[in-house]
Write a structure and sequence with these properties.
- With 463 residues, this protein is mainly β.
- Helix content is 8%, strand content 33%.
- It contains four helices and 41 strands.
- The protein starts with a strand and ends in a 25-residue tail after the last helix.
């Protein structure tokens, strides 16, 4: 087999560089091709197998034709990028090492303005790892993982101090987490992330836009911590049913907008812990679907200043719950006289304005008992549990104070707002069909307070 590498200089000169013939078992010296290329060149790799463990230390564009394979054969990092303005496109990246201590990676980047587009990563520990790589693009890649226990895997995509980066249209399968640290003003759009631990994990990453992603069959769909100004809209968070099993978890977050998302079939649709963090902030949850979850929205008892409107709560085992005993208050369930749709609302609308004439209450005695004493969930859906609920209905003296009282419940399910930030990535047909058949919900304009930056801890102290 004869392999040709074409180097196209930016000065429009076209040079064909022949490579010595190689047998199918031999690897072509990729590092030599990099070393011989002038800065700013375009290297076109023809189909074949190239040796991994390379470093790109100058601005280059590497384009694959007919899926050339860059293979490290189970050793170290496959491609390391240490120069800015590098593009890697159309390659199969295969066979990193398996050391978490060394952070063996498919593509590791330590420079800004790098584009990683349309590649396939196979049998890699960490998939794509950006460190101080601002203004970069990770788009349209398929990122696999090593077949090891999930805690021993690396992250499918990881960003560290890589602000203003676009992560779009990727399919991440079976990695540990997709995680973002200290990376402000990033866009995470149209990705599908499945089979991992945390579909998305944010730490100290302000002003992110997370839209039109599918986060399914992970232990946790998305968990956001210690960040502010994050917008989550148009995402599908489905069948995340691990030990925590949150579709979305928020801890110590501020100024978060949650609009037009579908929370379907999770253990908990959305979990709130000390969010909003700032006592002057409000958090708006509008136009979302919570359907067929064990619990639609679960909050710590001290959580306050969350405002819910135009959401649809459909056939959840419990629409709203508290995570432990304590007084639960200080959250609002309507905006300007518009509440939420509840599938078990038994009220009426004599005025025909689409708003129930009586309030909707979540005050189920049995679920109140299980919130305070989780071990009682063993009796869920048993005759004993049903008798407790019936007794509370027949004898109001036993009824607890309501967890939720929506004074303006919607009679009809609202249509869902559509967001057009991207093409939506690789859509899972089954999830899309479920969400389309069940409901559509509409968002409304969300009030966002002025932004305030939070002081960060010492980054070097965080591991």
């Amino acid at each position: 087999m004869r392999v040709f590498v074409v180097v196209l200089l930016l000065a429009t000169a076209l040079i064909s560089v022949p490579v010595a013939s190689a047998t199918p078992d031999e690897l072509i010296d990729f590092q030599a091709l990099i070393d011989d290329a002038a800065p700013g060149s375009v290297i076109v790799l023809e189909s074949g197998r190239y040796a991994g463990g390379v470093t790109i230390d100058k601005p280059l564009t590497v384009l694959g034709r007919d899926w050339p394979i860059i293979d490290s054969e189970g050793r170290g990092t496959v491609i390391k990028v240490t120069a800015p303005d590098v593009t890697i496109e159309g390659l199969i990246i295969r066979g990193s090492g398996a050391s978490l201590d060394r952070e063996d990676t498919g593509i590791a980047v330590d420079a800004p303005r790098v584009t990683i587009r349309g590649n396939r990563l196979e049998e890699v520990l960490f998939g794509i790892f950006l460190r101080k790589a601002s203004n970069s693009v990770i788009a349209d890649n398929i990122v696999g993982a090593k077949e090891v226990f999930i805690a021993n895997r690396g992250d499918g995509i990881r960003l560290w101090e890589s602000e203003q980066t676009l992560v779009e249209g990727n399919l991440v399968i079976g990695g540990r987490d997709t995680v973002f640290w200290f990376s402000e003003d990033i866009i995470v759009r149209g990705n599908e992330i499945t089979g991992g631990r945390y579909g998305l994990h944010f730490m100290y990453s302000d002003d992110a836009v997370i839209e039109n992603n599918i986060l399914s069959r992970n232990s946790v769909g998305a968990f956001m911590m210690y960040s502010s100004g994050v917008i989550l809209r148009g995402n599908i968070l489905a069948e995340n049913f691990g030990p925590s099993g949150y579709g979305l978890g928020l801890k110590d977050m501020d100024q978060v907008t949650i609009e037009g998302n579908r929370f379907i079939g999770n253990r908990v649709g959305m979990y709130l812990d000390n969010s909003p963090y700032d006592h002057n902030d409000y958090q708006y949850v509008t136009g979302n679907l919570f359907a067929y979850n064990k619990t639609g929205v679960l909050m710590q008892p001290a959580v306050k200043r969350n405002v819910f409107s135009r959401n649809a709560f459909i056939e959840n085992a419990a629409h709203v719950g508290i995570a432990s005993s304590g007084k639960f208050s200080g959250n609002e369930w309507s905006i300007d006289g518009v509440g939420n749709y509840w599938s078990d609302f038994a009220g009426y609308d004599a005025g025909g304005d689409g708003i129930g004439d009586v309030s909707y209450r979540v005050d189920d005695l049995y679920n109140t008992l299980t919130d305070a004493h989780p071990h009682l969930r063993f009796f869920q859906d048993t005759p004993a549990a049903k008798m407790i609920a019936l007794a509370a209905e027949m004898f109001p003296i036993f009824r607890p104070l309501p967890l939720v009282e929506d004074d303006f419940p919607l009679i009809n399910r609202p249509p869902m707002k559509s967001f057009h930030g991207g093409d939506g990535g690789s859509l899972n047909v089954a999830l899309l069909l479920i969400s389309t058949l069940m409901i559509a919900g509409a968002g409304m304009a969300v009030l966002i307070p002025s932004r305030r930056r939070r002081s960060y801890p010492n980054k070097e102290a965080i591991t």
